């Protein structure tokens, strides 16, 4: 009896394979030998290294486009931020606001620099910022902060894992002392252990001052990790500095119940007449749209519910020298809209995963420092305020984009501005 191996779900139109392209599959075979183009092995910034790189790159593009005179004259400031440096990319920066923030740490009217190549983005946040400001400002509160690194230790049997955790629990004070030998600003504030079969996942949580802190906690935890491997009475079969439990640069549900980075809530109650004036819709329609879109987020397996935190955070992070990859985790959160007893709009964002710093990283590079200076948020003592401003900005964006969908203006705005 013949067998049918066909796939009933196969759709010929969905594949790029055809008889002609199948003849080119030999292109996928490994090719050994030297690459046609190779650059200097020296990863650091020096005039000699730059000259060697551009000697080869100039056949592809104009050196001045990436390495203009100002960039070349100040290139040493980038030495701690990048390897194999060849220049800078100029991303357009726009200003949104002012947005009024009534926070515990950020209290004032802020002009927000946003770096993006997406038309209509700055205009949208500017509209939401003006609405928030005319309504009296967004009440914004930083609730918690903390950042983790999570080593894992693997044993042969569960009993060994249990003995190991029993020993770990007696060493917490030692861990704190070891961590503090690596940093003046970071503090180990909490240690947890999770046994999964014969694996022990450890969770080291820190406060990192005004720095975003990823490098700080990595270095501190590595010192603890080395101490454990040297002193543990039960030797693990395997061990790794990171187990993927920290949520570093990926969305997870953990921060919704706790925190990663900085947890901030921003809320506002807006008179229905202001909603109609700025958003050309009603509080009732916004609340209903929020309910429907929450269902869509659930059907899509979303973590949290929001319209587009990523737009605000990517543009803000790039402008202000934050780690742009952290947008992946920072966009976890919950947007909520309700109708008040008087028919006005209550709107809030809860953002438990804001990874921002006012020192370290790229915050002192020339353009990025200038953007932080516009907000008055560069330097020591400003990180918590920056987190509150970021949350208020996201609230402005949620109001604006949800209003655009309710009023039927979303597509029209992009057609008008993306000309």
UniProtKB/TrEMBL annotation:
Residues 1-34 are annotated as: Disordered. It holds the Pfam family HMG-CoA_red. Its EC number is 1.1.1.34. One of its GO terms (biological process) is isoprenoid biosynthetic process. InterPro entries: HMG_CoA_Rdtase (IPR002202), HMG_CoA_Rdtase_cat_sf (IPR023074), HMG_CoA_Rdtase_CS (IPR023076), HMG_CoA_Rdtase_eu_arc (IPR004554), HMG_CoA_Rdtase_NAD(P)-bd_sf (IPR009023), HMG_CoA_Rdtase_sub-bd_dom_sf (IPR009029). PROSITE patterns: HMG_COA_REDUCTASE_2, HMG_COA_REDUCTASE_4. GO terms for molecular function: hydroxymethylglutaryl-CoA reductase (NADPH) activity. This is hydroxymethylglutaryl-CoA reductase (NADPH).
């Amino acid at each position: 009896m013949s067998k049918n191996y066909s796939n009933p779900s196969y759709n010929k139109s969905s594949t790029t394979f055809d008889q002609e392209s199948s003849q080119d599959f030999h292109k996928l075979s490994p090719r050994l030998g030297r690459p046609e183009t190779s650059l200097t092995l020296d990863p650091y910034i020096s005039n000699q290294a730059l000259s060697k790189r551009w000697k080869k790159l100039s056949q592809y593009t104009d050196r001045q486009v990436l390495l203009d005179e100002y960039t070349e004259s100040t290139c040493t400031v980038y030495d701690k931020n990048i390897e194999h440096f060849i220049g800078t990319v100029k991303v357009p920066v726009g200003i949104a606001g002012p947005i009024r923030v009534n926070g515990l740490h950020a209290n004032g009217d802020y002009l927000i620099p946003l770096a993006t190549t997406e038309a209509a983005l700055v205009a949208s946040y500017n509209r939401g910022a003006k609405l928030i400001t005319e309504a009296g400002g967004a009440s914004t509160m930083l609730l918690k902060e903390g950042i983790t690194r999570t080593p894992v230790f693997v044993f042969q049997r569960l009993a060994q894992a249990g003995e190991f955790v029993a020993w770990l629990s007696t060493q917490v004070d030692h861990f704190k002392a070891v961590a503090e030998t690596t940093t003046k600003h970071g503090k180990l504030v909490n240690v947890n252990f999770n046994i999964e079969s014969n694996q022990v996942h450890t969770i080291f949580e820190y406060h990192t001052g005004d720095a975003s802190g990823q490098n700080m906690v990595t270095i501190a935890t590595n010192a603890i990790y080395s101490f454990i491997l040297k002193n543990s009475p039960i030797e693990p079969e395997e061990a790794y500095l990171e187990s993927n439990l920290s949520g570093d640069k990926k969305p997870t549900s953990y921060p919704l119940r706790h925190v990663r980075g900085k947890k901030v809530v921003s809320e506002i109650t807006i008179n229905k007449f202001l909603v109609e004036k700025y958003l050309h819709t009603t509080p009732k329609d916004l609340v209903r749209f929020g309910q429907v879109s929450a269902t869509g987020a659930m059907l899509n397996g979303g973590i949290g519910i929001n319209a587009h935190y990523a737009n605000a955070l990517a543009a803000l992070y790039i402008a202000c020298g934050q780690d742009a990859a952290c947008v992946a985790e920072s966009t976890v959160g919950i947007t909520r809209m309700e109708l008040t007893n008087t028919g006005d709009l209550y709107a809030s964002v809860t953002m438990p995963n804001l990874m921002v710093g006012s020192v370290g990283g790229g915050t002192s590079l020339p353009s990025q420092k200038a953007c932080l200076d516009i907000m008055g948020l560069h330097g020591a003592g400003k990180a918590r305020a920056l987190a509150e401003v970021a949350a208020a900005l996201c609230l402005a964006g949620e109001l604006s984009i949800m209003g655009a969908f309710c009023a039927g203006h979303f597509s029209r705005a992009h057609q008008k501005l993306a000309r």
